[in-house]
Amino acid sequence: EINQQETSDEQQKQNNINKDQCHLWVSNIAKETHASDLKALFSKYAKVLTTKVIGSSSSQWFGYINLTTPDDVEKCIKALHQTELHGKKIHVDREMHDQPTRTSSSNTHKKQSDHSSHKPSSSSNDSHKKR
Q1: Cα-Cα-Cα-Cα dihedral of 66, 67, 73, 75, to 10°?
Q2: Which CATH number fits domain 22-109: 2.120.10.30, 3.30.70.330, 3.40.50.300, 2.40.110.10?
Q3: What's the mean pLDDT in 94-110?
Q4: How far apart, in whole angstroms, are the C-alpha atoms of residue 16 and residue 102?
Q5: Basic and acidic residues compositional bias: what residue ranges (predicted)?
Q6: What is the pLDDT of residues 52-74, one digit of tens each?
Q7: Any idea where the domains of the chain sit in the sequence?
Q8: What average pLDDT does range 39-44 have in this prediction?
Q9: Labelling 6: which of 53, 71, 83, 125 has CA 20 to 30 A away?
Q10: pLDDT at 11
Q11: What span, in angstroms and rounded, lies between the C-alpha atoms of 86 and 15?
Q12: Contact predicate 94/42, CB 8 Å
């Protein structure tokens, strides 16, 4: 029983590592794209756990996709990066690339409500933080 428990603990650790590596970030999606559209597209290549579409009136729309394995992530990136969906070429990448900008999103909320014409030079990065 101890060996089974150790194996179970190891599997749980591996599962947690895998979960961290199973997220996709999809950018440049059309405004009319829904989470169900992303799920239908990505389900052709992998088992999709969740999908989410986030956008704003500024025409920048993004998707988050949660898959089951890192291999599925690689498969989807290779198969779907730069493919067309609703008339736009989507960009598919690991969500990890976006993590640093998400950590400072609390500062972004203040900037989102500030509609002045003079924004800091980092405002181009802010558009990626609005989520």
Answers
A1: -140
A2: 3.30.70.330
A3: 44
A4: 20
A5: 86-100
A6: 999 877 778 999 999 999 999 99
A7: 22-109
A8: 98
A9: 71
A10: 59
A11: 34
A12: no
